[in-house]
Specification:
- With 151 residues, this protein is α/β, with parallel strands linked by helices.
- It has a domain of 97 residues: Beta Barrel (Barwin-like endoglucanases).
- The protein is 14% helix and 24% strand.
- Strands 1-5-2-4-3-6 form a 6-stranded mixed beta barrel.
């Protein structure tokens, strides 16, 4: 018998014995680990000359995230930080963060963004199954992850 056949038989035996079974379905979503997750606000020192308009052209809102490696409109989750919240990629970070796995969450105030700080090695679940992570643009090699200060 193959391993799969053995598992099926074992599952049937346990089910007959009244043992509840929890069989995990494979996830259709891509999960990646981000080097860093930071936060920003519409504070003039953190943005360009139009602090309330994101790179996508949309007005900033709670649930907006900047990620240079995903297309606009990509829906993601950060379950370790916000278990039930979905974010939509609508903004971009400075180009020095191209080709690295870093995301930046928009927050309503500078104080909230500063309090959030820098989170390292955070899992991101990409909920749009057709969106693939792209670290290279125009066949450029991936760059070393820049250090982000916590101050």
């Amino acid at each position: 018998m193959t391993i799969v056949q053995n598992l099926i038989v074992l599952g049937l035996i346990l089910n007959i014995a009244g043992v509840p079974l929890a069989i995990a379905e494979p996830s259709p979503y891509e999960t990646i680990t981000l080097s860093y997750v930071t936060a920003y606000s519409s504070h003039p020192s953190l943005t360009d000359n139009d602090p309330f308009i994101a790179a996508s052209g949309k007005k900033v809102y709670d649930g907006m995230i900047a990620a240079n490696f995903l297309p606009f409109g990509t829906v993601v989750m950060l379950p370790e930080l916000f278990p039930e919240k979905k974010f939509i990629v609508e903004d971009r970070m400075n180009r020095r963060y191209n080709n690295v796995l870093i995301a930046d969450i928009w927050m309503e105030t500078y104080e909230l963004a500063k309090k959030f700080g820098v989170k390292r090695n955070v899992k991101m679940v990409i909920l749009n199954p057709l969106q693939k992570v792209s670290l290279t643009s125009q066949n450029q090699p991936a760059q070393k992850t820049p250090e982000i200060s916590e101050s």
